Amino acid sequence: MTGPVRDPGLQPERTRLAWRRTTLACTVVGLLAVRQGLYVGTSAVGVLAVALSLLAWLGFLSAAHRRVSAMGASEPATLSPRLAVTAAGCTVALAVFAAATVF
Amino acid sequence: MSGDFVRGLRLWFAPGRIREEGDTPDYRFSLANERTFLAWIRTALALIGGGFAVDQFLPGLAWGVRTGLALGLLAAGVLCALRAVNHWVRCERAMRRGEDLPVSRFPALISLVVAVVAVAMVVVVLFGWEGR
Question: Distance of CA B55 to CAs B84, B102, B122, B130, Å?
Fold first, then answer.
């Protein structure tokens, strides 16, 4: 699997694991969002917020998956700004939907 | 400072623009920058998770205190995530141009916010601002 040139610092592997850690953190927040939904009951705002939170989680997951797949190359290309904005945007979305259910 | 911010903001939505400037740095530097970005995103996610946790696991607190703390943590998380992208773009650009990496007082700011929240929690626990 390793190409002719192997980075002794294992940079692509470390970056892949960083994406994994971040996905796990995002999953924990997603689970808390679902729990929040159970907690506030079946109001329209609550159900909508939980559904959109899950959508944000899926968005993050797909961005992470695309980037992790790209880490297979021996010298991966720079992260595209679009993926960075997607990851941060999904994080912001989770916070906004959380704020909507706090009241 | 604010001009820099606007220029950085424009780069967020013009992916090709970054590549037009300077030379592509060693891929390892870019990956290190990416991992720093991800660490900030995790910090943002932790703050957001903290906001959820305050709201869900502290039902004994008075409504105002609980909501205030939760919203404060959520807002800090949003700030952290937005700043993560901005700082990543600025670092990437500085590396391409061969300039010094940007310095920032944001880490100090966020640690102050976390410290204030922690002190607020200690006060709440010690003096019991429980609602009923």
Answer: 25, 36, 17, 14
**Number of domains comprising chain B:** 1
CA–CA–CA angle B73, A39, B127 (5° rounding): 50
Paired residues of B61 in beta bridges:
B130
B82 inside domain: yes
Residue B61 domain boundaries: 27-127
Is 0.90 exceeded by the ipTM?
no
A103 and chain B: CB distance < 8 Å anywhere? yes
Say what the pTM is: 0.86
Please report whether residue B99 resides in a domain: yes
Residue of A nearest to B17 (CA): A81
Per-domain boundaries in chain A = 13-102
Tens-digit pLDDT profile for residues A42-94: 788 888 888 999 999 999 999 999 999 988 887 888 888 889 999 999 999 99
